[in-house]
Design brief:
- By secondary structure, this protein is mainly alpha-helical.
- It is about 75% helix and about 0% strand.
- The protein has 11 helices and no strands.
- The N and C termini lie far apart (about 60 Å).
């Protein structure tokens, strides 16, 4: 471990982020397929089950949009606090989903969206920390990304052999809890968030931010297509095999890895903190990402209702 406290903090933040990304890579391909299967058991109509799944995903994004400005104000500029609480909410979300998959909460599907939405709203990498104390990976970055791309493939094989979806969700929750430990080495970073709640939404609609918001909408729509629509479409149209889904999703992530530069960080999740924006505009971009995902879901829901 480096002697320099700043470099050590950079390593700790990098290790934290990698644990979170591994957890995301493990569940991203299978979470919404699980939700769809849950609604199928209740509704027994594929079209309605798909609509319910899309609406639940949209509720995640709506919750994130509504809570994000409040979360920034509640953190009082302490980004480490937001990072820690966001990680904790991520752990709670996956543990809850694991318990939900056992039938412990037979009518609590909406709570999945609310807790996941709060997690996305609160979890923020400190901009100053990311830019000022970024440490190189402890293995070669390409090897780490290759391992990350292989996670869905491995999980798909495990789900068809000895591991259940319940175990997978509990495992993801455990990784989030473990990811809290490296944060003990990350210093408190204070980044002032100067906008009020209504002011944030006013700036989201302000014409001066049109380009930023438009880019967020496009990337958000692409993220929804990749991490929601593509796994559902493959599962429904081509095969109901979780193993095949894991293989295809790993190949998709590998394609993203080869397409992006070696510095690409958005393999298992898309965050806005890597952009060259001050904190307020980074929040705007994340809200635009969520809005793009919402619009994609509503468009598919409308199309499905007309079918």
């Amino acid at each position: 471990m480096p002697a320099d406290p700043l470099l050590r903090a950079g390593y700790a933040l990098e290790f934290h982020r990698y644990l979170v990304r591994v957890a995301s890579a493990a569940v991203d391909a299978f979470l919404w397929v699980f939700v769809f299967s849950y609604f199928m058991r209740i509704i027994d109509t594929p079209l309605y089950a798909l609509v319910q799944t899309l609406l639940l995903y949209a509720l995640v994004q709506v919750t994130a949009m509504l809570v994000m400005p409040l979360a920034q104000q509640a953190m009082r500029g302490n980004m480490l606090r937001g990072l820690a609480y966001g990680t904790l909410f991520g752990a709670i979300a996956y543990v809850y989903i694991g318990a939900f998959s056992t039938g412990s909460f037979p009518h609590g599907a909406a709570a999945i969206a609310l807790v996941l939405g709060i997690h996305h709203a609160v979890y923020r990498i400190p901009y100053t920390m990311e830019r000022g104390a970024f440490a190189p990976s402890f293995y070669t970055p390409f090897a780490l990304e290759l391992f990350l791309a292989a996670v869905p493939l491995s999980v798909g094989y495990l789900l068809t052999s000895s591991v259940s979806l319940t175990t997978l969700f509990f495992f993801a929750g455990a990784l989030y809890i473990i990811a809290l430990a490296p944060l003990l080495l990350v210093p408190h970073v204070y980044e002032r968030y100067s906008w009020g709640y209504r002011e944030t939404f006013h700036n989201l609609l302000d014409g001066r931010n049109r380009r930023l918001v438009f880019e967020g909408l496009i990337f958000g729509a692409g993220g929804a297509a990749l991490f929601l629509l593509w796994p559902l479409a493959f599962f429904l149209v081509f095969t109901h095999s979780l193993r095949a889904l894991g293989i295809v999703f790993s190949l998709t992530l590998l394609g993203i890895l080869l397409f992006r530069s070696m510095r690409g960080r958005a393999l298992a999740e898309q965050r806005a903190d890597g952009g060259a924006y001050v904190d307020e505009y980074s929040v705007l971009k994340e809200m635009a990402l969520a809005l793009g995902r919402i619009l994609v879901c509503l468009a598919v829901v409308v199309a499905a209702s007309m079918y």
